[in-house]
Structure formats: structure tokens, C-alpha cells
Design brief:
The protein is mainly alpha-helical and 430 residues long. The protein has 18 helices and 6 strands. The structure holds acetyl coenzyme *A.
Length: 430
């Protein structure tokens, strides 16, 4: 980050020189850290549309060109040639692992897949009809009550163990939340299966009969995990960073990230997209639906479309669409009505001026629900699957932030528009 250029800000005739920081990729950043002290002004940017809240070396997005890279590697190559646990290693440690490093990493993650047996009771405290995201927020937050030996964020070894625990146990927790919601017994993890296959097994096996994981579906599951692994400073990641900046323990921070991800404008969009496709029902109903989306008074949005950063195709959406085709082909589903509606909706939206002018394209969630539904997941499980996949991104960003010697508690300021100072009025005089 070279700091030899400056921007000049003039306020009431007085000039302030602000350093310009140059990234390796992406736009320059004007460093305003000293501005308040020097000029007694804040900057105003609700929604952080023009604000870099941290520096990071993990993920880069060029929203105009539709580029997403992790540690420099394009997401398309990682989705095609790598696999989820290798991408986890890359995100956590910055480089692709050697064969020996990968084996050690996979073995360590695999050995942490079981959860404390007493946590099973914790699940049983929830109503059966609880949304699995509600259960996950609670159970992941409760991990800090079970794993006292990985709570000290100042100890690098404990940070490492917390990272392994979260990545390893999240599939177990998500699968248990699902099993609990359908009244089936919990299925323990199987360490002879790979990460994605083990998750499918924990979700779909029952004690009464053997369940063989279909390797093509396991590969598709792994690819969905890979496509969701990290995405720069999105809302849930920023939530994790903000929670962590106060020194909160890792399990509390990740629970905060899960809570944020649940919203339909973020990770909840995959569930909302499938519900929307079902509601549209058949391609003939698309024009009416599009008209509603364009009518601002309706408050209806085309779910799975649009993105704060991508003003072009979300590169993950392209891989996701290809995966949807492969999975449906494998399952012998050639005329999935939801896929037909989705494809037609995409075709019509991409030709419509409303979407063209606003640069609205399909995002990662437009096709993921179709694949997950074809695999047998109910819609309520879509966002928990996103949460389990994103855990490594949250943890990598959390780890990066804690290693930063300049770490400060995140404490935004505000543009106060309330009442000015006034005197308290006794109740009988109001
Ligand atoms: N359908 C219809 N119109 C839309 C959509 C949409 N999906 N997304 C944005 N717009 C319109 C807005 O109405 C606004 O129009 P205007 O300029 O006439 O007022 C314009 O496009 C800009 O929209 P903003 O809401 O300002 O854009 P922002 O960057 O804040 O929102 C967001 C991004 C939240 C993702 C939005 O596009 C959206 O709600 N999409 C649908 C939900 C979704 O798919 N979320 C998943 C995001 S990816 C992820 O988290 C995994």
C-alpha cells in the first residue's frame, strides 16, 4: 500500500491532504482515518457503498467485470479443479497446500466432526418446527459454553483449534438441525467419507437401512460449498469482523454471522428464490410477475437477481447453472418446471430495460435452490447450507483481523438528526 499520493479535501476554504492507498487490485482508497481529528467532520456512507472497512488479502471482486478470486485464483478454476477443503486451506493460510499439507489438514478437520454429546440435549430444547437457521444461531453460539479450551483469542493455537472446530462441526450441526426438524434420529459423522459426502450422509441416512452417497451428488455438493466459501466484506462477514473487533469469542462471532446471513437480501435469498419460482409456477405467468417487480409500489423483487458489487454476471451463478444442468441430468429430471421458469425468467429479465439499466444479473442464489431441491433438501435447509459453506470465509477473515497489529474496535459514528438539548418535563406537565 504505497502512500505517496494524496487527495485534497477543501472545507470552508481550508485544505486537508488525505493519503491515497493503492491496492494490488481494485480502486484506490482515500485514507480518512485522521480526518475527524484534523477537520472535525465525519464522512457519511450508510450501507458502506463507498467505504473500505478494512484491508484484506483473502478475496477480490471486480463487480464490473464479473471477477471473483480467492488469494488470486479465479473461482471458476477453483470450482472446476479444486475441492472445498483445499479451498478452505487456501483461504485460511494464503497458499494452495502441498499433498502432505492437504492430507494433514483434511485429517485434522475430519477428527473434529463430532460435537460434544451434551449438545444433543441443546437441540432438543428447540421446537421441532423451528427454522434450522434459528437452531444454528443458537447452537453455534452455545459452542462457547462447550469448548472452553478454544476461547482465548490471544492464543494463536486456540484460534487455530476454534477454526478447525467450526469448519468441521458446522455440517454436523446443520444436518442435526435438519434431522431434528423432521423428527428423525441424529446421524453421527462418518470419517471415512469426504466433507461433502459426509454431510449428505448425515442429512439423508437413517439407522434402519444403508445409504450410499451418490458420488456425483457429493461432487455437486462440494462445488456448492466451494462457490459459497468466501465473498469479501459482505454483510455477514462484516458482522463477524465487527463482533470480533470487541474481542468476542469465535463461536459468538460466527453465530452473529449466521444471524446476519439469514436475511432474504443476503443468504436467505436462495430460499426466497425457490419460493418465488414456485409462486410463479409456469412460464406464462412470468410477464405479470416482471410487471409487479417493476412496479415500485409492489415491494416485490426478483429474488436471486442483483448484487451490491456485481454489475455484471456473478461468476458463481454461471458455474451454479452448469451444476444445476449436471445434477438434473444425473437425476433424470429433464423437464424440471422450476428450472424452466428460472431459465425463462433469466432470459426475459436480461432483455428488459429495467434490469439492463440497473445492471441486475443473476447472482449465486438464482440456481442454487433448484440443485438443492433436486438433491432432496427442503427450502428451509438452503440457507443453513450457505452458512456452513461460508464458515471458512468468516473464520479466515476473523483470523486475518485478529493478526492485524492495528486492530481497533469497530465503532462507526452517525449523522445525528434528533432533537437538540432540551430539559426534562415532569409527567404532569406533558
Ligand atoms: N429486483 C428488482 N429490482 C431490484 C433488484 C431486484 N432483485 N435489486 C435491485 N433492484 C433495483 C432497486 O429497486 C433499485 O432501483 P431504483 O434505482 O429504481 O430505486 C436499484 O435496482 C438498486 O438497488 P439497491 O437496492 O439500491 O441495490 P443494493 O446494492 O442496495 O442491493 C441487493 C443489492 C440487496 C442484493 C438487491 O439487488 C436485492 O435485493 N436482490 C434480491 C435479493 C438477493 O438475491 N439477494 C442475494 C444477494 S447475493 C448473496 O447475498 C448471496
Amino acid at each position: 500500500m504505497a502512500e505517496n499520493r494524496t487527495a485534497t479535501l477543501t472545507i470552508d476554504g481550508k485544505e486537508y491532504a488525505l493519503p491515497i492507498l493503492s491496492p494490488t487490485e481494485g480502486p484506490d482508497c482515500i485514507d480518512i482515518r485522521k480526518l475527524y481529528g484534523q477537520a472535525d467532520v465525519f464522512t457519511y456512507d450508510p450501507g458502506f457503498t463507498s467505504t473500505a472497512a478494512c484491508d484484506s488479502t483473502i478475496t477480490f471482486i471486480d463487480g464490473d467485470k464479473g471477477i471473483l478470486t480467492h488469494r488470486g485464483y479465479p473461482i471458476e478454476q477453483l470450482a472446476e479443479r479444486s475441492h472445498y477443503l483445499e479451498v478452505c486451506y487456501l483461504l485460511l493460510y494464503g497458499e494452495l497446500p502441498s499433498a502432505a499439507e492437504l492430507e494433514k489438514f483434511e485429517t485434522t478437520v475430519t477428527r473434529h466432526t463430532m460435537i460434544h454429546e451434551q449438545m444433543h440435549n441443546f437441540f432438543r430444547g428447540f421446537r421441532r418446527d423451528a427454522h434450522p437457521m434459528a437452531t444454528m444461531v443458537g447452537v453455534v453460539g452455545a459452542m462457547s459454553a462447550f469448548y472452553h479450551d478454544s476461547l482465548d483469542i490471544n492464543d494463536p493455537r486456540q484460534r487455530e483449534i476454534a477454526a478447525y472446530r467450526l469448519i468441521a462441526k458446522m455440517p454436523t450441526i446443520a444436518a442435526m438441525a435438519y434431522k431434528y426438524s423432521i423428527g428423525q434420529p441424529f446421524v453421527y459423522p462418518r470419517n471415512d467419507l469426504d466433507y461433502a459426502a459426509n454431510f449428505l450422509h448425515m442429512c439423508f441416512a437413517v439407522p434402519a437401512e444403508p445409504y450410499d452417497v451418490n458420488p456425483v451428488l457429493a461432487r455437486a455438493m462440494d462445488r456448492i460449498f466451494t462457490l459459497h466459501a468466501d465473498h469479501e466484506q459482505n454483510a455477514s462477514t462484516s458482522t463477524v469482523r465487527l463482533a470480533s473487533s470487541s474481542g468476542a469469542n469465535p463461536f459468538a462471532c460466527i453465530a452473529a454471522g449466521i444471524a446476519c446471513l439469514w436475511g432474504p437480501a443476503h443468504g436467505g435469498a436462495n430460499q426466497a428464490t425457490l419460493e418465488m419460482l414456485r409462486q410463479i409456477g409456469t412460464p406464462e405467468n412470468i410477464p405479470d410477475f416482471i410487471a409487479k417487480v417493476k412496479d415500485k409500489s409492489s415491494n416485490v423483487r426478483l429474488m436471486g437477481f442483483g448484487h451490491r458489487v456485481y454489475k455484471n454476471f456473478d461468476p458463481r451463478a454461471k458455474v451454479m447453472k452448469q451444476t444445476a444442468d449436471e445434477v438434473l441430468e444425473l437425476l433424470g429430471v429433464h423437464d424440471n418446471p422450476l428450472l424452466q421458469v428460472a431459465q425463462e425468467l433469466e432470459r426475459i429479465a436480461l432483455q428488459d430495460d429495467y434490469f439492463i439499466q440497473r445492471k441486475l444479473y443473476p447472482n449465486v442464489d438464482f440456481y442454487s435452490g433448484i440443485i438443492l431441491e433436486a438433491m432432496g433438501f427442503p427450502t428451509a435447509m438452503f440457507t443453513p447450507i450457505f452458512a456452513l459453506a461460508r464458515t471458512v470465509g468468516w473464520i479466515s477473515q476473523w483470523k486475518e483481523q485478529l493478526a492485524d497489529p492495528q486492530l481497533k474496535i469497530g465503532r462507526p459514528r452517525q449523522l445525528y438528526l434528533g432533537e437538540s438539548l432540551r430539559d426534562y418535563i415532569e409527567i404532569e406537565n406533558r
